Amino acid sequence: MEQDSAAVGRKRRRRGGAANRRKTSSSSQEACPAAPQAAAPSSEKRRRKAGEVAAAPKAKGRKTTSLLDKMRARLSGGHFRMLNEKLYTCSGEDAFEYFKNEPELFDVYHAGYQEQMSRWPEQPVNVIINWLKSHNKSWTVADFGCGSAAVAKNVKNKVFSIDLVSDDPSVIACDMAHTPLEPSSVDVAIFCLSLMGTNFPSYLQEANRVLKPSGWLLIAEVRSRLDPNTGGADPDKFSEAISQLGFSLVSKDANNKMFVLFYFRKKEKSKAVDNIDWPQLKPCLYKRR
Ligand SMILES: C[S@@+](CC[C@H](N)C(=O)[O-])C[C@H]1O[C@@H](n2cnc3c(N)ncnc32)[C@H](O)[C@@H]1O
């Protein structure tokens, strides 16, 4: 599913604001695994799907096409890795400015991300969607770093979908450290693989601001980022920092090979501890295969 940014740029002409959007995604493999592989060109994919055999082109022509496709896919994979690294190594404010200036790059990022996610046996966003479906449909939800807004598209709840860029009027384009949501206005705040910026604690502080007392905070993160054996943060320190912000850990689902999912609840009455000792969350960088 390669895309070059120029082509994508022709498709989308938009800026941040409160509305605009893209297509969704899913994820990868062990830790932050492989970058997108040389995806077959869409015409080739369509042909394969339809069970067609490629009309016998001249051997030389076919070779040239396949070489070009491989080169394009490699460029696209490299572009994705670069954008992914950027998101993990800059602040949310810088990421917002970056994509505001070149919103078409957001599609490049999400095409690569989707490619990665297609390799994960289970998508954390689906686990979260199922959790929401099994709870109160009248709860208001805020999906921080919503990607393709899969949550909003799959549940009956009112969902505020938030991301850096949007081409969908239902998605709020902003740096999620500063959302336009009212204080104590949502019942569930979700971060599904979206604690990417170097200032990730400020996203959680914002979630704390908009959550009602007893509201739920669901965080899915790439397993390796919270595994001290692979250079990740200590998950207990991570939970402890969030407790100091004013939450109680209700449960932690570590059954999945690729991600961990934390379920916190905001305390009825709480005041965040000053100078919380936040652990560092290492970037999830994808290796070139
Ligand atoms: C890895 S994707 C996950 C998307 C979606 N939650 C899912 O599970 O499919 C992380 C998303 O968080 C968004 N994001 C990262 N930092 C952000 C910020 N400071 N403000 C808003 N969105 C942000 C990225 O743009 C990206 O769409």
Topology:
Blueprint: H1 5-11, H2 42-49, H3 59-89, H4 92-101, H5 104-117, H6 124-133, E1 140-144, H7 150-154, E2 158-163, E3 171-173, E4 186-192, H8 200-210, E5 211-222, H9 235-245, E6 247-253, E7 259-266
Parallel strand pairs: 1-2, 1-4, 2-3, 4-5
Antiparallel strand pairs: 5-7, 6-7
Helix pairs in contact: 1-5, 3-5
S-adenosylmethionine binds at residues 24-25, 87, 92, 95, 113, 125, 145-147, 150, 162-164, 175-176, 192-194, 196-197.
Family: Belongs to the methyltransferase superfamily. RRP8 family.
Subcellular location: Nucleus, Nucleolus
GO cellular component, one term: nucleolus
Quick summary of this structure?
Its EC number is 2.1.1.-. The chain contains 9 helices and 7 strands, in the order H-H-H-H-H-H-E-H-E-E-E-H-E-H-E-E. With 289 residues, the protein is α/β, with parallel strands linked by helices.
How would you explain this protein's 3D organization?
The structure is a single chain. With 289 residues, the protein is of the alpha/beta class. It is 37% helix and 17% strand. A 7-stranded mixed β-sheet has the order 3-2-1-4-5-7-6, with helices on both faces. 41% of the residues are buried. Residues 1-31 and 33-58 have low confidence and may be disordered. The structure holds S-adenosylmethionine. S-adenosylmethionine binds at residues 24-25, 87, 92, 95, 113, 125, 145-147, 150, 162-164, 175-176, 192-194, 196-197.
